[in-house]
Amino acid sequence: MSWSDRAQLYRDSVAHREGExxxxxxxxxxxxxxxLDVATGGGHVARxxxxxxxxxxxxxxxxxxxxxxxxxxxDMPFADGSFDVVVxxxxxxxxEDVKAAVVEMARVSGDRVLVVDNLYMDDAAEAADKxxxxxxxxxYSEGDWRELFESAGLxxxxxxxxxxxxxFEPWIERSGxxxxxxxxxxxxxADRIEDGWITLDRIAIRGLRSRNEEP
Length: 215
Ligand SMILES: C[S@@+](CC[C@H](N)C(=O)[O-])C[C@H]1O[C@@H](n2cnc3c(N)ncnc32)[C@H](O)[C@@H]1O
Known about the structure:
Layout: H1 7-12, H2 14-17, H3 20-28, E1 34-38, H4 44-51, E2 55-60, E3 69-70, E4 83-89, H5 98-108, E5 109-118, H6 123-132, H7 142-151, E6 154-167, H8 168-175, H9 179-188, E7 193-194, E8 197-209
Parallel strand pairs: 1-2, 1-4, 2-3, 4-5
Antiparallel strand pairs: 5-8, 6-8, 7-8
The chain binds S-adenosylmethionine (SAM).
Residues 3, 10, 16, 39-42, 44-45, 60-62, 65, 72-74, 89-91, 94-96 line the site of S-adenosylmethionine.
């Protein structure tokens, strides 16, 4: 199933509509007048930032997600420093070239870059993610994230980690997995599923544009 075919499931998904990580993005974006929501999916980051008065542009390569701008994170049609804050939530594990995407996010940000994503847990969890959703590239560790930010010229000023409980059945349904694939995912994650829920490790990282760049 393509991303566009899954758009309504992502708009309706309780796991995406709310969460401690979404609240933290709003807190970390405080004071930003303009924001870019990269890989907007169901549009939850854009919605929450608009609710607090930010002028938000959303982007995503899938037309069905109905973003303001159709583009990949690795190649965005915005001028340098266009937005006070650039955010991407639970999407970077799908980017073909995450390094290029973080460099782009840093380039179009005038002040802050915020990323929230699932953390690398172990090889079985990575295999489960790939069976469940072939567009999964990989999750990264906290060390990987720090390196990605620093090599894009961002100063990492805060990192938080969360446990994100997700209901297993809707999670599988959103990806359009077959019965056989669902069984394979369930087997790979057997030791992490409890009463129909799985707990994912999630990271939020905030980077600031370096103040000592050449003008
Ligand atoms: C899980 S959804 C995003 C969830 C959303 N940010 C939220 O907070 O609810 C993942 C999104 O990543 C987008 N995507 C996939 N590859 C991408 C890429 N290379 N650049 C930008 N977005 C990408 C998909 O189209 C999809 O809308």
